[in-house]
Structures are given as C-alpha cells and as structure tokens.
Amino acid sequence: MQRYLFGGSFSDLPREDCDVVIVGAGLAGLYTALQLDPSFKIVILNKFGLDQSNSMYAQGGIAAAVAEDDSPDLHFDDSMAAGSNMCNQDALRVLVDEGPENIRILQDWGVPFDLDRQGRLAVGQEGAHSRKRIIHSHGDATGLHMTSRLVDLVKARPNIRVDDNWTLVDLVVDDADTVAGVITLNSLAADDFRFYRARVVVLAAGGIGQLYLHSTNARPATGDALAASIRAGAATSDLEFIQFHPTALPEPDENGRCFLISEAVRGEGAILRSIHGEAFMEKAHPQGNLAPRDVVSQAIFRQMLKDDSDFVYLDITHQPAEFLQRRFPMIYETCLQRGLDMAKDFLPVTPVQHYFMGGVDTDLHARTTLKNLFACGEVAHTGIYGANRLASNSLLECLVYGRRAAQSINGAPVCELSDLAALAAVFARTQALDSARRATTLAANLRMTAVESTAAEDRQQIRQMMTRYCGILRSKEGLQTALHGLEAIHQRRELATIHSLTELEAAQMAVTGRAIVKAALRRRHSVGAHYRMDESRPSPVQSESRRRK
Ligand SMILES: Cc1cc2nc3c(=O)[nH]c(=O)nc-3n(C[C@H](O)[C@H](O)[C@H](O)COP(=O)(O)OP(=O)(O)OC[C@H]3O[C@@H](n4cnc5c(N)ncnc54)[C@H](O)[C@@H]3O)c2cc1C
Predict the structure, then answer these.
(1) What value does the mean pLDDT of the chain take?
(2) Residue 486 CA, ligand 1 centroid: distance in Å
(3) pLDDT higher for 201 or 446?
(4) What is the pLDDT of residue 536?
(5) How many domains, the chain?
(6) Is there a single domain that holds both residue 291 and residue 157?
(7) How far apart are the C-alpha atoms of 88 and 490, rounded to whole Å?
(8) Count of CB atoms within 10 A of residue 282's CB?
(9) Is the CB of residue 378 below 6 angstroms from any atom belonging to ligand 1?
(10) E strands, 11-165, where?
(11) Does 204 lie in the same domain as 72?
(12) Closest ligand 1 atom to Cα of 49
C-alpha cells in the first residue's frame, strides 16, 4: 500500500508549527483542546467548518449514571450486554466511572442540560438501558447545544486556533515511528497543501458514514483519519462492527444524510409497524421496541424484505402533540417540514448507517500504537463497545477519553519538534518506494489504465458496494465481490496524483472500505452489529423468537 497520498515535494510545503494539532472539531476534538494545558499552542483542524460534525447532529443525549436509582455498575452491565460481552472491561470501567464527573465539568462550563422540577439533571430512557440515564439539552438538540458551547469556549482561548477547511491527507512519521505532524489539503481549493508540524497529533476526526449511500453522518465522515492511520502503520480493530440506526427518514438530503428519528422516541412508547400496520417487534425480541439496535435494524430489514417495501412505520400517535413538540422539538419540526405530523401520522422509517464501533486502537490513556499520536471519539477504538454500541455512550466516550488524552499529553515530558531536514529525507525515501510500487502496479495492470474512471465515480461506486455487500446483512460471496471491486478502485486511486478533495476522499475511502470488508470477511460468525447470513448459527433475532415459542 502506498504510504503517502501527497505526491509533491515535502520541502516545498508551506508549514505551520504548533505544540498540538487536533484533527477534528467535534465534541472529542474541542473537549480535548479545552482540557489541554493552556500554555500549549494548539491548532484544531476541520474539513468543512465548525458546524459540520456528527457531534452537532447528536439528538438523544449522553449516557451517565447520575440518577439516584442508577450506578456505574448498572451502566457497565448494560454496555456489556449491548456489546455481546465483547467490551474491553478496563476501558468500559473507566468510561462509566468517570462519566458523571465529566458531565459535572460540562455543567460548570455552562452547557445547558435540561433539569427536572427539583433542579436535578433530567434523565431520559433509551433502548437497552435498564435505567433512565440519558442526559439531554433542549430536548433532542443535545449535540448542537453541547458542541456550540464548547465552540464558544474554544474561541475565547488565546492559545487555541481553529483552522477551518484543512483536511488531513497524511500522517508524517519520522525514522523512529514517531508522528511529527500532518499534511493537509485545503478543502476548498485544489493543490493547496500545508504541513502542520507538531509535538503531538490528536485524531478526533469522527466516523465513516459517508462510505454508505444512506447514513445519518455528517458530510466529513469519510474515514480519512482511519485511512491515514492504516497507511502509517497504526493498529486498528473491530472495523467490521458498524451500527445501523434502525429509524431514519428514508429520503436523504443533498449531502446523503438521512434525518434520524431518535431512539428516545421509542423510549416514549413509539411502536414499529409493518406497512400493513402490524406491530412486529414483540415477536422479534423480549424487549420489543426497545431491543438492542442491531436486533431492531435486522428485524426492520427482514420486515421490509417480507413486505417488499423500502420502509416500515414508526407510530407515536398515542402521544399528544404538545408533549411531542416539547420533548422532540427538532424531530417534530423536521417531520412537519416533510409533511408528517408525528401526533397524527405514522412516520416512514428505514435503518441507515449510524455509528462506527471500530477504529484506531487506543489504550486507557488514548495513546495509539504510534508514538505521539493520540485518538479519541468515534475515530478511536477504545474497546468500550465490543460488538455493538449502547446508545448514547459515544458522546460520553468523546469526553472521558478526550480528557484522558489531554491528561496524558499534559503529563508527558515536552519533546522537541522534529528536525525538518531529517523529516524531508525520510519523506523522500518513502516517496521513492511509493513510486517504485506504483510503477510495478502500472506494469501489471496496463489494461486498467485504459478504463478511465473519475474520482467522483469511484467514490460513488465505493458507497454502492459498501451498502450492498457490507451493510446490515452480509455474506462471504457478497463481501468477496466488494473486496474485488474495492481492490480495483484502490489500485486505480494509487496511480492517480491527488489534487482535489474528491480525489483525496476517493483514495481514503478505498483504503478504509477495503479494511472494513477484509475485517468482515475474517469474522465468519454473526455477533452484535456484524450479521453473516451464510453462517450456520442463528441470528439473535431468530434465536430469541425460537426461545419464545
Ligand atoms: C444524527 C446523529 C445522532 C446521534 N445521536 C447521538 C446521541 O444522542 N448520543 C450519543 O452518544 N451519540 C450520538 N451520535 C453519535 C455521536 O454524535 C458521535 O459519535 C460523536 O459526536 C463523535 O464525535 P467526534 O468528535 O468523534 O466526531 P465528529 O463530531 O463527527 O467530528 C469530526 C470532526 O473531524 C473533522 N474531520 C473529519 N475528517 C477530517 C479530515 N480528513 N481532516 C480534518 N478534519 C476532519 C470534521 O470536520 C469534524 O470537525 C449521533 C450521531 C449522529 C450522526
């Protein structure tokens, strides 16, 4: 695999020096920056400005054991059960134990969480949680209010600068496998590259949703940081575990983002119905409409196949309009804009890609396997999810592990910025190896170059293949078809020089998609969010319904 996507001269790159560069301006990146020692010069990068992140779109809330009848132990048990007992217990223990204190920090910083009549944090219920523990802000606009408050705080800090529209291309690593900075491309202008040299790099670049045709994820989520980490040799895990949210409106907007109908709506009693009006979740799982997400997604998918339809219905018409407007203002309004009144109409919903449980491996201090490279938030693999994510644990993970990343960086001895001449020499050597590899590929695939395909077409093909073959239901045959197609695109993209964002994304998506499909092929049995149709063991949906007969 080609090590660097940047094909120009390293020495000629415009350069910015800082102590810490954070790739990503969602909750994980912003919170990490605010927890770092104020003496550090920090630069936060993002792809399309501060309002484009999954964090901004988060609705339901953030899970933490703050209620009187709750405890970190119960939160731990629920997370373990949702993750098919495959969670990293140490990492999960840290998450549930440190959750409440991070919520207190956000309250102290002025995040406007909703309170109950007694002035305590109001907590809601979500699927697979045994207690009410979902803290929210302005009803269903938690992400927007939490993230916006952190943006304000970051802007007020003289030591933190946000550089909008600078997209990560490559992680620059020196001879000693120490990360020395990042090469970036201006998202808005072709051929405008920049090198950020830093003592420490923090990856907080979010998920991979845009690898799928239907996703709730924001536009930047093309898995760039994961691809760059793979090319740099960082360890990654659990890439096959991709959560599909059971309920989104089927029609995507212009960015391919499907509007999410939060699980909290089922928490308030909504019922899933077939297109014929029949409630089907009670037959599928003992927890009915509040079963774990993968079970609900599979059950909906099967119902859609059975009825040959593109959606099922979500029915919350038993709740009065005033309640729905107050509890779900954003969802209520968005549905109304699309001609749907939640209080009167059944909502058409379909499962869509939603969350990426895998990622760049990190330890309990958010350190990756590469020196001076940290990762937190959705891009990281801490192991807290196992085979599936318990709803609303991900915002909490951004906080707990973002803070831990900052604490590790604050406590480490200050290292020097890497020497530029030495970096240029290593870069040139690696580039020469990349060129030799490209020449071999070209010689072996002369015919391939005749088949011209644009980056935009390749990008779309990747999304089609991932959706068709590496979605909710998978098989060996389908995954092999996808791998074959992705290999071809990957090779083609390696032969092309990167000038624009579309070319860059197509190249990164090919690396990420290939890695995900390989991981899905390796895991031959169904577990959690990974469902293999071709295995002999029954799926959770089938086995539960058998047990109930
Ligand atoms: C619709 C929706 C609803 C959700 N609801 C909830 C919920 O209720 N509770 C919950 O716990 N979780 C929820 N989630 C999940 C949660 O929002 C995310 O897991 C979390 O916000 C991830 O935060 P992050 O900081 O890791 O990434 P993000 O918030 O996605 O931020 C990623 C940042 O990285 C930047 N970036 C990406 N690629 C590059 C690049 N190549 N170069 C430079 N910058 C880059 C982006 O521009 C962005 O600034 C929801 C997600 C969605 C999509």
Answers:
(1) 93
(2) 25
(3) 201
(4) 54
(5) 3
(6) no
(7) 32
(8) 14
(9) yes
(10) 15-23, 42-45, 62-63, 123-124, 134-135, 160-163
(11) yes
(12) 47
